[in-house]
Amino acid sequence: MKRWSVILAAIALSVALILAILELGPAGIDLRLPVAENMASSGVTHPVTAVLLNFRGYDTLLEVAVLLIALFGILAVGMEPLPSLVKPADPMLQRLARFACPLVIVAGVYLLWAGAFRPGGAFQAGALLAAAIVLLHLSGLWPGWGTPSWRQRLLLSGGFAVFLAVSVAMMGFGALLEYPQAYAGLLILLIESGLTLSLAAILAGLFLFLSRDTGGNP
Amino acid sequence: MINSSLVFTITGIVLFAMGAAAVIMMNNLLRRILAFNLMGSGIFLVLVGLAQRQDAVDPVPQAMVLTGIVVAVAATALALALVRKLHALSGRLDLPRRDNG
């Protein structure tokens, strides 16, 4: 009874939303023109990167903070080491993982660099690097993480710290998170490089702190 | 008029409704987390679809979706950590049912 009423309600909701979408008028605020007009002063030439790192820098700063807080939450929940669920991988898989990782790292650095003028950027690059670490972990080449050492803590929080330091240092030139036009490209590259390393560590940490095992290297 | 923007938006709406129904119906917490992610993916698809409604693509919703994906990953990981702790402490993967008398 409850099941059917929920299904019927979901169908009614989607029909109502689709009808609303079909009747949708033009957007009340059109942000495309302001973005296109200010591209020259943003320091990069790709509009999504300009929005993320320059026009709406607050979003990105707080997003990195959310990631850090989620990681703190996972560490605070505290995990008992479980016996490793991942079976020791066969040598073929390990060989392939060893072969793939350098390629993934090259692709990640390229994505970071390409973010200034085409789709790419710190988040995609960080996700790739984190995927490389998770791949190594799953093939048994990289042990799960226990309590982070101070070096790991520095790496995890470094991207957020660099972002915050740059935006506070730029307060002298105007407002928070506002870059002087001449250095905007350089500052965005600095922030994105720091973010890439930190995001890779955080995203990999979300996985590796959770899959802490007693084993380590098989 | 059927164009790619409309296809993205309608698919997103259907995914959102499916996820919302599953969040209500499922008792297993892992399935609930999956359903919650499905809702989020539906919202991202709606945003991306609406961003390309006109000829030129609006970069602001795309940047918001990029932010949203990362936040969704963080929230999912935290939820999984809590579920794993619950499983370690009580050996169950669903919330205790409370009968409303």
Note poorly predicted spans of chain A.
214-218
N-to-C series of helices and strands of chain A? HHHHHHHH
Rg of chain A, alpha carbons: 22 Å
- Helix/strand class of chain B: mainly alpha
Strand element count of chain A: 0
Q: Architecture of chain B, CATH level 2?
A: Orthogonal Bundle
Computed structural class of chain A: mainly alpha
Note the beta-strand portion of chain A: under 5%
Oligomeric form:
heterodimer
Helicity range of chain A:
55-70%
Portion of residues in helices of chain B?
over 70%
Major β-sheet annotation of chain A? none
User: Which residues of chain B form runs of ≥5 with pLDDT under 50?
Assistant: none
What is the CATH C-level name of chain B? Mainly Alpha
**Helix count from the secondary structure assignment of chain A:** 8
E-strand count of chain B: 0
How far do the termini of chain B sit from each other? 52 Å
Please give a structural write-up.
The complex is a heterodimer of chains A (218) and B (101). Chain A has 218 residues and is mostly helical. Chain A has one domain (2-208). Chain A is built from 8 helices and no strands. The longest helix of chain A has 25 residues, at 184-208. The model of chain A is unreliable at 214-218 (pLDDT under 50). Chain B has one domain (4-90): Helix Hairpins (Orthogonal Bundle), CATH 1.10.287. Chain B has 3 helices and no strands. In chain B, helix 1 packs antiparallel against helix 2 (29-51) and helix 2 (29-51) packs antiparallel against helix 3. Chain B is elongated. The chains are: A mainly alpha (218), B mainly alpha (101). The A-B interface holds A 2-3, 6-7, 9-11, 13-14, 17-18, 21-22, 24, 27, 30-32, 35, 47-48, 50-52, 56, 59-60, 63, 66-67, 69-71, 73-74, 77-80, 121, 123, 199, 203, 206-207, 210 and B 6, 9-10, 13-14, 16-18, 20-21, 24-25, 50, 53-54, 56-60, 62-64, 66-67, 70-71, 73-75, 77-78, 80-82, 84-85, 88.
